[in-house]
C-alpha cells in the first residue's frame, strides 16, 4: 500500500466515528502479506493464523503510538516479526525442544503431503531454511522472498544494514551448503 493509502487509513483510525472502518481497511490492506511473512517463519498454518491475529491486536493497541516515521507496512512487519520470533522462542522453551528436536519436528511437518506447496525443490529449500537460526531465516525471507531492501529490513528488524547483509550472506552460504548435500 502506498504512503497516501496509509494516510487515508490513519485518518480513518484517528477519527472515533470511523476508527473501526479504518482498522478493517488496515487488515484488508495488509493481512495477507503479514500472514505470509509469519507463515514462512513458523510454517504451521494454525500458528501463523494465531500470530497474525496477535499482530493486528497489538497494532490496534499501539496505533496511537505510531508516529508515521515509517510506513504502516514496515510497522506491521516489525510487530509480526517480533511476534513470530517470540512465538518460536516460547514454543522451544514450553516443549523443552532442543534445537535439533525442533528442527526434526518441523522437517516432519514439511514432509507431510499438503503442508508445503510446490515441488521437491521447494521442500528441500524449506528444510534447508530450518537449519538457519530464526533471525537468519527471517532475514533470508525478507530479502529473498519478500524482496525488501536492506533499508526496509533495517526498519523492520531494528538491525543495521551491515549486519543484515552479513546475515543474508551467511544464510545463503548455509542454504547452498545444505542443498549441495541433498
From TrEMBL:
Tell me which residues make up the RNA polymerase sigma factor 70 region 4 type domain.
Answer: 123-175
Keywords, ordered alphabetically = Sigma factor, Transcription, Transcription regulation
The RNA polymerase sigma-70 region domain sits at 26-93
Q: Which GO terms describe its molecular function?
A: DNA binding; sigma factor activity
GO biological-process terms attached to the record: DNA-templated transcription initiation
Query: What does the sequence similarity comment in the record state about its family?
Result: Belongs to the sigma-70 factor family. ECF subfamily.
Q: Which SUPFAM superfamilies match?
A: Sigma2 domain of RNA polymerase sigma factors (SSF88946), Sigma3 and sigma4 domains of RNA polymerase sigma factors (SSF88659)
InterPro entries listed in its UniProt record: RNA_pol_sigma-70-like, RNA_pol_sigma-70_dom, RNA_pol_sigma70_r2, RNA_pol_sigma70_r4_t2, RNA_pol_sigma_r2, RNA_pol_sigma_r3/r4-like, WH-like_DNA-bd_sf
Name-wise, this protein is RNA polymerase sigma-70 factor (ECF subfamily)
The record's listing under Pfam families reads: Sigma70_r2 (PF04542), Sigma70_r4_2 (PF08281)
Organism (species):
Algoriphagus antarcticus
Amino acid at each position: 500500500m502506498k504512503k497516501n493509502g496509509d494516510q487515508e487509513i490513519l485518518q480513518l483510525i484517528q477519527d472515533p466515528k470511523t476508527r473501526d472502518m479504518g482498522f478493517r481497511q488496515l487488515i484488508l490492506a495488509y493481512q495477507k502479506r503479514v500472514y505470509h511473512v509469519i507463515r514462512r517463519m513458523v510454517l504451521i498454518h494454525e500458528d501463523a493464523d494465531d500470530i497474525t491475529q496477535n499482530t493486528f491486536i497489538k497494532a490496534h493497541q499501539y496505533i496511537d503510538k505510531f508516529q508515521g516515521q515509517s510506513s504502516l507496512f514496515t510497522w506491521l512487519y516489525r510487530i509480526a516479526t517480533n511476534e513470530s520470533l517470540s512465538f518460536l522462542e516460547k514454543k522451544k522453551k514450553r516443549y523443552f525442544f532442543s534445537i535439533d528436536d525442533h528442527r526434526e519436528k518441523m522437517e516432519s511437518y514439511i514432509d507431510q503431503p499438503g503442508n508445503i506447496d510446490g515441488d521437491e525443490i521447494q521442500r528441500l529449500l524449506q528444510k534447508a531454511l530450518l537449519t538457519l537460526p530464526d533471525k537468519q531465516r527471517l532475514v533470508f525471507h525478507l530479502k529473498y522472498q519478500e524482496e525488501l531492501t536492506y533499508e526496509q529490513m533495517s526498519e523492520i528488524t531494528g538491525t543495521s544494514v551491515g549486519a543484515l547483509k552479513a546475515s543474508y550472506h551467511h544464510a545463503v552460504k548455509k542454504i547452498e551448503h545444505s542443498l549441495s548435500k541433498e
